[in-house]
Amino acid sequence: MKRFVLDASVALRWLLDDPVSPYAERVKRLLIKGARATVPALWHLEMSNGLAVAERRSILSPANIDQALLHIEQIVSQRVDTSGTFVSARQSLATARACKLSAYDAVYLDLARHERLPLATLDERLRAAAAQAGVELLR
Fold it and tell me: pTM to 2 decimals?
């Protein structure tokens, strides 16, 4: 069974893009076919924030948000594992500094490194940092 670290940048595309980017669609199909994603705990907050911003900007209506949450909850319950690994502020800052990332993105990179899993992301800076750090990118 394929496992990978899922960045919120991919999962939010499932809900906000029309049409959904080919990469995000491929990642979603992997999950539907039985792959499992691992996410840091902050992924859930990033997803909520992305939906809140989409609602404020009138990209999604409250009814669309409710549907999106049901969709994400179904995927999470079946195919997504939330990492219980302690996230050290010192470690995320060190990675953020070294790779010129936000501390949030550094958490995804560190999780992929720690778990030795490929990373699924649409964030170009995170993709570049992963390549530089020797972290495989999910294709």
Answer: 0.94
